[in-house]
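Course exercise 7: structure representation. Students receive a sequence record and must write out the corresponding structure in C-alpha cell form. The form below is the worked example handed out in class, using Enolase-phosphatase E1 (231 residues). Read each field label carefully; the graders check that inputs and outputs are placed in the correct fields and that the protein name is recorded exactly as given.

STUDENT ID: A-19
EXERCISE PROTEIN: Enolase-phosphatase E1
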Amino acid sequence: MATLELTNIKAIVTDIEGTTTDIAFVQDVLFPYAYQALPAFVRRHSESPEVAAQLEAVKLEMGQPDAAMDALIDQLLLWIDTDQKVTPLKALQGMVWIQGYETGDFTAHLYDDVAPNLQRWAAAGKALYVYSSGSVQAQKLLFAHTPAGDLTPLFSDYFDTRIGHKREVASYAQIVQKVGLPADTILFLSDIVEELDAAREAGLQTVQLVRPGTESSQAHPTVTDFNQLVL
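STUDENT ANSWER:
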C-alpha cells in the first residue's frame, strides 16, 4: 500500500461526506428521512424557540417575512430536493435526525479506516476538527452514533457553514484563527477539489480522499483511505 508522509501536522480538519462517510449514507438515508419527517416535525415544534428561530431564518432566505407554514415547508423540501447548503435547513435536518439516531432507525456510516485512524491521531496528540456543510449538530450526531461507538470525544471542535462556505478562502482563514495554530501545521482532508483549493490558499496543507466514485485530481496529494496517511 502506497503511503503519503506529511510533516509538522499538529491539527487535522476533516470533511464528512465523501471523506469519512459514504455519500450514499447522506443521499440515500439521511436526506430521505429528513424529507419524510421534517413537515410534521416543524409543525409539531414550531413554537419551540430553537425551531422558531430557524423558521424565521428560512423566511429571511426566502425574502418573505410573512410566509405561511405551508410555504416554509415547501421551501425546505425544495432545498432538500435540490441539495442546497442552506444553514437553517441544515439546522432543522439535524433536529429531525436526532430522532432517527435515538430511535435506532439508522446508524451512521463510516469507512472502516476512519475510526482507527482518528483514534490513533488523537492518541498521538493531533487536534481533530470537523468542517462540513451539514450543521454542527448533525456532525455531532453522526460521530456519536457510529458502528465504532461514540467518537465525539476525539474532536476539539466542529465547523459548519456558519463560519463560511467551504469553497471560500475566508472560511479556512477563520478556522485557522479558531484552531490557534499556524496554518501550515493544519491538514485539511476532503474529496472536493474546490474546497481543497480554498484551504490551500489559506495556507493549510491539503490531501484529497479518492473514495469510490471520486475523481482523482492532480492539484493536491491524494490517498484512497486514511491508512495511507503518515503524519
